[in-house]
Amino acid sequence: MGSVYRRRRRNGKYGSVFWVKYYINGRPVRETTGTRRESDARRFLKDREGRVAVGQAVLPRADRVRYEEIARDLREHYQTTGARNLKEVETRLQHLDRFFKSRRVAALSQADATSYVLKRQSNGASNATINRELAILTRMLRLAYETSKLMRIPVIRKLKEKAPRQGFFEREQFEAVRRRLRPDLQAAVAIAHAYGWRMQSEVLALERRQVDLDSGTLRLDPGAAKNDEGRVVYLTPELKALLAAQLERVGELSKRTRQIVPHLFPHLTGRRAGTRRGDFRKAWTTACQKAGVPGMLRHDLRRTAVRNMVNLGVPERVAMKVTGHKTRSVFDRYHIVSPGDLQDVARRLAGTFSGTPHHSEVAPRRLSSDNPSTRP
Fold first, then answer.
1. How does strand 217-220 pair with strand 211-212?
2. Which of 118, 172, 246, 332 gets the most CB atoms within 10 Å of its CB?
3. Residues 144, 149, 152, CA angle at the centre, nearest 5°?
4. In the chain, how many domains are there?
5. pLDDT of residue 48
6. Are 159 and 117 in contact (CB under 8 A)?
7. Same structural domain for residues 330 and 195?
8. Residue 211 included in any domain
């Protein structure tokens, strides 16, 4: 049988807020009701005893858990498990932290999420960006539920996003842009075009030690990529030549400046010579304009690499390993079908129905009595 009472303070006086005492599996549980009205406190007690009677979860602290606590739990979860990139998570959390600060978690609802969406949209955030932030919030609430700090997970609806960008390079377009870049940047964009690596966080962050011309490999260390997984790719003859020339340029820079330059793509001239190159947007924009493809992004090289590998028959599992995609859904979004692909379907169909084999089909090997391997 439970009870309602006020707690005695150190000065001998009783507090104004009522507390309740009830039992779960024979063990006493004491919990504040947060009210000064005895009638409300007794209703609170009946609710708790009713939950115990039917076997529902009773979370004594649920009404007092604040947003800051579950946000801290989420940060610790990602830090210990390594399930997400912490820098990316912090970028999302900074907006959530400002909006949901000091709010009681048990009271959060879709109405609060809607208010957050309106706030972010007024700040110019896209629906895709807001959805990623809402996904972080949902994961936070689910973790609170799993750790018995929340009795139910509120339904938070996502926004409709725009169709993913369809930008990609045809081969002649890429070559036209590459020719208008400096030699060191030509090597950088060639890596992104071939393997779909992210330009700023992966290609430009490479160091000389990660290139092995003897074995013909290029290595991305674990932790350096967005998905925290390492990668090793084998260089094409063209890329091997480009990187050999780049290593020579960096070696000459080291001799000229009399310092060790670890970066594969450092600034080669000027005050920042020898320091890591962080970006080259201006040079890229200029090259695209001169090549007649204004508005193209360096990230379009990543989409192009995915499309090229799939069209060449590379198994998707292997292609995802090369590009660093962890989920099939994202990989599929990057696999773009071009008008040229659709035209190729028409050419193949025309060849099939007309009885004329398509030019890409391999002609059957002719039998010859002069060829020992073809004799019966």
1. antiparallel
2. 246
3. 75
4. 3
5. 80
6. yes
7. yes
8. yes
Burial of 303 per CB tally in 10 Å (0-12, 13-18, 19+): buried
- What is the tens place of the pLDDT at every residue in 228-243? 678 999 999 999 999 9
Tell me which residue of 343, 322, 320 sits closest to 333, measured CA to CA: 320
For residue 181, what is the enclosing H or E element? Answer: none
pLDDT tens digits for range 208-227: 999 999 999 999 988 766 66
325 and 192: one domain?
A: yes
Closest by CA position to 112, among listed 120, 247, 284: 120
Please answer whether residues 204 and 279 qualify as being in contact, where contact means their C-beta atoms are separated by less than 8 angstroms. yes
In the chain, at which residue ranges do the beta strands (DSSP E only) sit? 3-8, 14-24, 27-32, 211-212, 217-220, 231-234
Locate 303 and state its tokens. Answer: 């989409």
Tokens of 74: 């989420």
pTM of the predicted structure, to 2 decimals: 0.59
Q: Give the end-to-end CA distance of the chain in Å, rounded to a whole number.
A: 95
Mean pLDDT of 139-166: 84
Which amino acid, residue 210? Q
Quote the longest CA-to-CA distance of the chain. 113
Contact 276, 205 (CB under 8 A): yes
Structure tokens at 162: 């725009």
What's 214's domain CATH number? 1.10.443.10
Whether residue 244 is found in the same domain as residue 185: yes
Domain that holds residue 295: 171-334
Confidence of residue 246 (pLDDT cuts 50, 70, 90): very high
Enter the tokens of residue 209: 């030690």
Within 8 A by CB and 6+ apart from 269, the residues are none
Whole-angstrom CA distances from 59 to 30, 142, 163, 219 are 11, 15, 42, 50
